[in-house]
Amino acid sequence: QVQLVESGGGLVQPGGSLRLSCAASGFTFTNYAMSWYRQAPGKEREHVAEMSESGRSANYAFSVRGRFTLSRDNAKNTVYLQMNTLKSDDAAVYYCSVYISGARYWGQGTRVTVSS
Questions:
Q1: What percent of the chain has pLDDT over 70?
Q2: Interval 10-39: pLDDT, tens
């Protein structure tokens, strides 16, 4: 079955950096685009970024453009989200996601806290 396991969240000061990882299994990783979403307390889940199957292209939400960078290692079935210049508004639970045959799958999430 599809499994997505996120890691790398934690507490960081404003202006700091974190790298999130998502290890995928249960499907052919190289056949699917991979996405990150986030959900802050009291807010709806929002799309953060998506990377194509090959890793050659990515798109980002306006709020993170220029600060966040996606990458993927198809040999390790892992996608990464490098987050720089973090702001308090970036604090949320971050979810890795993949859309396969009409269904969207989610990981359990990893919490990012931005605070001084």
A1: 100
A2: 999 999 999 999 999 999 999 999 999 999
**Coil, strand or helix: which one is 112?**
strand
| Residue type, position 88, single letter | S
Give all strands (DSSP E) within the chain, no chain letters: 3-7, 10-12, 18-25, 34-39, 46-51, 58-60, 68-73, 78-83, 92-100, 103-106, 110-114
What confidence tens digit (pLDDT) does each residue in 76-101 have? 999 999 999 999 999 999 999 999 99
Label residue 32 exposed, middle or buried (CB < 10 Å: 0-12, 13-18, 19+).
middle
Distance between CA atoms of 89 and 67, rounded to whole angstroms? Answer: 13
d(CA 7, CA 36): 12
